[in-house]
Amino acid sequence: MLTYLYNKFYKETELLLRYMLSSSPHDYDRFTKEMCVIRLSDAWARYCRNIVVLSSYAQPYTLTGIRIPRVQNLRTYSEFMQAFPNYGPRWNGWGNPIKTIQAARNIGISNFQQISMGIALTPSPLDSLRDIRNFFAHRNIKTAQAVRVIAASVNAPINIRPVDILLFPSSPGGASVFELWVHQLRNMARICAE
């Protein structure tokens, strides 16, 4: 089951990469790329939620073939929600590494160490991803300042459009910033599922 989650996350990020790296002279292309960031952030939050929740009751197999024991004899999603109502699908902490690790600890999943190792892996794109996602979703001075910090961190020109930061090379001749983020998240997801 964790293999399924990982493969689903991988395929979703593959589609987002394809949209991000496609080019079009039209304005809708900018909006598509902005949505790719929002979708990547959402995909990561869903992945974190699903891997923690399923590890609590579904007795899934890891990528390495080890079966995860249940928590407190939980057998179904409804029993999980009764035992841990604060960690439902609407809880906004799933994409946040600290909150997700804390939730996994509070729930008491037996693969806590592996999941926390994957989520806490560095380098992590999560802060930059959240900041640029927040700019695309909530444009204001505070979010714009956070985007300027991201631009400076990749040595992008000061006047670069936020969406163009995503396509900026993460290193000379290297992958784009968005590609790097996707690869880092895939690596984090794989470690969580092992």
If you had to describe this structure to a student in words, what would you say it looks like?
With 194 residues, the chain is mainly α. It has one domain. 63% of the residues lie in helices and 0% in strands. It has 9 helices and no strands. The longest helix has 30 residues, at 28-57.
Describe the structure in brief.
This protein is mainly α and 194 residues long. The protein contains 9 helices and no strands.
Please mark out the parts with pLDDT under 50 across 5 or more consecutive residues, or reply none. Answer: none
Residues in helix, % = 55-70%
Instruction: Give the terminus-to-terminus CA distance.
Output: 11 Å
Question: Strand pairing plus helix content: what structural class?
Answer: mainly alpha
Number of domains: 1
Mean pLDDT, rounded to whole units?
Answer: 93
How large is the radius of gyration?
18 Å
The major sheet is characterized as: none
Task: Give the number of DSSP strands.
Answer: 0
Shape: elongated
Individual helix count: 9
Helix-strand pattern, N to C?
HHHHHHHHH
**Percent of residues in beta strands:** under 5%
